[in-house]
Amino acid sequence: MRAYVGITDRDWYRFLRDRPELPEVNFWQPGGGRGFRALALGEPFLFKLHAPQNYIVGGGFFAHFSRLPVSMAWKTFGEMNGAGTYLEMRRRIEKHRPEESQPFEDYEIGCIILAEPFFLPEDRWIPAPDDFSLAVQTGKTYDLAGVTGRALWHSVLAARVPVLERVAEVPGPVFGTPTLTVPRLGQGAFRVMVTDAYGRRCAITGEKALPALQAAHIRPVSQGGVHRVDNGLLLRSDVHGLFDAGYITVTPKLEVRVSRRLKEDFDNGEPYLPYNEKPLARPGRQFALPAKEFLEWHGDAVFRG
User: Fold this and answer.
1) Which domain holds residue 120?
2) What is the pLDDT of residues 176-208, one digit of tens each?
3) Contact between residue 217 and residue 231 where contact means Cβ atoms under 8 Å apart
């Protein structure tokens, strides 16, 4: 298992520290080109302040990386971007972008989405490892089975952050090897992961205009559902509305069904009837396939038949 120590500024830390109940945060990259492949799902990402404050001040658990238009990042995460307003967020990002941005330019940023964030009070800040060079610009990966990584992780555990109860200690030398559970996703991570899983295309219509696409819960959280990728479908906004209202569903065999009630109730529905009995576009990853249990629930509890 690995951990990544990423560099951030004190303003970002302070803003989020004062909002301790946030379910997730967006650790953004000012340019969208680098990508992020250092961690697997659920591995810890730690926050280190810029020098000369070489301290680790919090962290979270890696959920997903995506490149998003800055407006969509704000719409999805809001204050979980570490800023109070969209304009403030843009100002912070643009201080670090090499090229000047136009006022209404919807440039892309990298979004490292972290679940279950935690922030340490100043009296529990952790000194950065001795081998974390001041020349490092973005961050560094540590093997938590190694001497330095194990000592670092023990220091984090010793800070007694309640959220770290999710990390189990396995018997072994010194402090044991940490193992992980899958992090609890928030609404923002769910939206972005579903959007990317379907290749940014509506799973029913094939629509690619990103502002028109929405991540739909098959079983809503208010009805016992969860923020899980296999409980999601990427749908065009009008199709999403009809899906939630029960005029469209997807069978456990991944076939679309359009209710005859659409025509009866609204004397309309012609644009949607051609999708009846068509196959759902499958997501690119097996783990994102809609779960049978959620599709059966929607067909039984919501679909109007």
Assistant:
1) 2-179
2) 455 666 778 999 999 999 999 999 999 999 999
3) yes
